[in-house]
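Journal club side-thread
Mid-discussion, someone asked how the predicted structure for our own chain would compare to the paper's figures. Pasting it here so we can look after the session.
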Amino acid sequence: MLEIINSIPDLDFDFVPALELKFWPKNIEPFLNRLRQNRPDLYDKICKTCMYLVAKASPISSGNYKEFDFRYSFSAIELILAEGRTRNEKSLNSVAKSIYYKYLYKKTAFQGDREQYIPLYFVKTTIFWMCEQKHHELNKIEGTKDEEIEKKLVLEWIQYIIKLL
């Protein structure tokens, strides 16, 4: 298996040890309830999957206990959400990522001696939220050309993230 993976050029991935949860943690219930209301078509699929815990220290963790920090991994859920995207939602995701890599990726602003930039998960998360909360509105957007639709979608995304910020 590793021989196959190593033979693929420019493959960027991480192996992350994870613990599978056989239950839904209580603090995830608001997400599930919101999803049941906003995207019942995806809710059933997500309820049949599982969550994972991954060893990942928080930046605010004390130095002595960082090796004991765990976070939820939503990777299996995100895969279902991504596969459930409509044509317009896939287009929005693609254009938003293009904007990110062209204009936002590692555009530096210095805070002290630390370089700061907008992480990709900001784009990913806002697209997931937007596709969940504005699913019907996004799919009503039309145009005569793909570029016209993409422009309208991106303007919606920009307004959405401005409102969030």
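Post-session note: Strands lie at 18-21, 51-55, 70-73, 109-111, 114-116.
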